Amino acid sequence: MDQRQTADAIAKLTGVVTALEVQTQALLLAVVGSGVHPDLVLKAIRAVPQPVVPAPGREAFERAMEGFWRRLDEAAFEVLAPDKKRQGPAREA
Asked: Which of 20, 31, 30, 27 is nearest to 64 (CA)?
């Protein structure tokens, strides 16, 4: 494999990983936004066995998981303490 093929493979892999991150974010927000308590999401995540990640990919895995946990916290906060400004105008009875 030459340098160009390696660069192409890395670019394709980056695209796939980015797509998976976006899809995961959308699913996470949909689940939490639909009323599933964030603690149930956390319990489900902890039930998934930890993957074996080769040493060269471990740092990237850890960074991606840190981002995931941050997004889960943000989604939980939005559900548990919604921003009233984002909910639209108040309706009068």
From this structure: 20
Distances (CA, A) of 83 to 38, 49, 78, 79, 87: 17, 35, 7, 9, 7
Residue 85 lies in a domain: no
In a domain, 83, yes or no: no
| Spatial contact of 80 and 36, defined as CB atoms under 8 Å apart | no
Is 86 within the bounds of a domain?
no
**What pLDDT shows up at residue 86?**
55
Residue ranges making up the domain that contains 47: 3-78
* Residue 60, CA distances (Å) to 6, 56, 66, 79 in order: 18, 8, 10, 29
Which residue positions in the chain have pLDDT lower than 70?
83-93
Number of structural domains (the chain) is 1
Q: pLDDT value at position 91?
A: 47
